[in-house]
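Q: Sequence in, structure out?
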Amino acid sequence: MSEQQSFFPLDAETTAAVKRYEDFRLGKANGYFEVDELSDIIDYYLFNGMTKDCDGVLELGNKLHPNSSELKVKRAKTCFVAGDVRNALRILETLGGDNDYETIILKMELLQKIGRGKEAQMLANKLFTDESADDSEDNELICLDIANAFISQNNFEIGMKWLLRGEQINPQNIDILLEKALVFEHQEKFDKALEIYNQLIDIDAFVPEVWFDLAQLYYFQGNFAKALEAFNYAAALDEDDMLITLQRAHVLFQLDRYDEAIELYKTYGEATGDLWQTNIFVAQAYEQMDKYDEAIDCYEKSLEIYPENYDALIGIGTCLLEQQKYEESIVFIDRALEIHEDEHEAWIYLAEALVGLDNTEDALWAYAKSLTIEPNQPEAFMAIANLLLEKDETEKALQIYLAARKLDSSLEFVDLFIAICYFYLKDNSQGIKYLRSAINTDAKARDAFLELCPEFERFLGMV
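A: Exactly. Output:
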């Protein structure tokens, strides 16, 4: 399954709003929501990549609060996230005036997206001039918000200038220093990022966000032991922060400490009510432990909350596949593909299930479909070649094996199967060449060769 990720940290009010809206969609609750509730629900969906779900929220909001400028800004933000930048900008421009702080920040991002970066910089300068005050703390915050508007569009150079401007106002502003560290991480300047984290710890070693971001750096570098140590410090400083709990669980998952990860996932789910996601995480941990029935149970609980749940559907499908329940597996994989037909891994799972049912032709089609979506899959080429070899289509199989080898020459037994194809095609010199390479790479290749084609045993003496 896919790598664990962090998700939107729900507070009690947002949890209640999201739950009530989900119940409303299922006809289990009334349909009245305040503007701030609808706004929170949209933010939650946007954060979790559920952009299409925002449309229903916005439609409801338009009926309940047709004149809400806040919801119009959220509509613009939703269009932005969905890639409809020009429509997002049009919506903001219909609001009139540039006095709304959030609108200006969003407009700066939109302008950069359509190549009007100079206008975005002019807006930034105007915003700082208009909003600057005698209170230096407010000015630091303005610099940070402007910086984030540029950083969010990968304009790190301009973003860093605003961070440095804020740092000049207050060299010990923790939020600004944290953002600087994150910019360095995006630029893969990890040593500089670590310097800033050490600087932050010197300023105040009791800020959980510092330890959290340091842990995240270690996590994405694959240093999970260090990441866990830093997350533990963060948790000790703020034991009620459930996002820290969630990330600690992710690290334990990566360290193969699945039982501990499951306990933390459950703690997070119970505390936040965000059960459809945490049930998936728990299921993935059970799956790694080969506890497929427990995993399926958790995936099904997630589906009950969010029926259009690709991860849960594909999770059930792969668990059934591992249990060799191929027909049942295909039912869930097909449902997952109805939601995301462009997921190449789902087509691979479908192909494997079809192979289990001896449906070779459909399996070959599913493998090919996966390769049209993601061509760089040497294992898929190998699987196709194996099926073709079983069908005695040796020439075709050879070409596919060679294509797989071109993508990844370290594939297990790829040279062995190329050798076998050449022997069947009576090109013995090429067969001996690849057999020699296979045995030199992996001593087990000799026994595998004898098992697969004992009729060619004589060629072993020529290697």
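Residues 147 and 159 are 4 Å apart (CA to CA).
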